[in-house]
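One example copied in:
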Amino acid sequence: MSAAPITLIEAVTQALAHELRNDDSVVLLGEDIGINGGVFRATAGLQKTFGDQRVLDTPLDETTIAGLAVGMATQGMKPIAEVQFDGFVYPMLDHLISHAARLRNRTRGRMTCPMVLRVPWGGGIRAPEHHSEANEALFTNVPGLRVVAASSPQRAYGLLLAAIRDPDPVIFLEPKRIYRQYKELVPDDGEALPLDVCYVLRDGADVTIVTWGAQVKEALEAAEELAKDGIGAEVIDVATLRPFDFDSVAESVAKTGRCVIVQEAPRSAGFGAEIAAQLAEKSMFDLVAPVERVTSYDVPVPLFRLEMKYLPSTAKIVAAAKRTLAAS
């Protein structure tokens, strides 16, 4: 076990080191991840420990990084690629969509693509344009990609281990706003957490709050505020966005009759809309009030002073939950 509680970014480093130490096929690649330890220092010290053949500094070329990762994965390696910021991922999409996601189907199962793309993701750090985007819906619409979002140090460690060991490509979203926001004890025991399932973080009987990534913190804070008014909010961390464990959400909504979906991404065509659509299709008669969505706005992330007003907040989640209660 860690001697002391660690942050989410330290949990990522711990998981990467564990797999490098225990699996010779694991290799890391990305811009400045070796000598400098990455822009967020997720790989700090790993090149010194494991060598420059296992932790590779690449050119500043996201297209090449994605292509190298796909090629390595087809040849028996388990590449873990890092893109410096979420908004830099777009040059990688051709390799991810056209090759990584299709390889199993294209070869009728004869080949797979066991790669992980680590994406520092989301807003809240007052960074310039292209550094604060919540673009998960780009990936959840691609068959063949698994999309995972960390939300705490413990889940970052366990889910990243599972992602590295998965035989298919995984987009691993790391909410940079909470990289160093709080700490947890995280045993370095190599125990992976299950993928493709939601995590119920708090029980409640009055309203279901569904979210992922950094917004889990605000959702739990909102549940605490609602409890002061005698309202029991059940909080669900989706964790794996694709494939999506709708059954866990449906089970909760069957109990509460109400649902608030929280996403950091812009409102239109976000992953929250998919959850709402499935609730309309499969859980209509369990709902006693319209589904509420708490989202960011359909504009680019505003710079600096306005950024936190753009993002969903605890107060906005509380207000949405109370609207669902007033509607029934």
The CA atoms of residues 123 and 197 lie 25 Å apart.
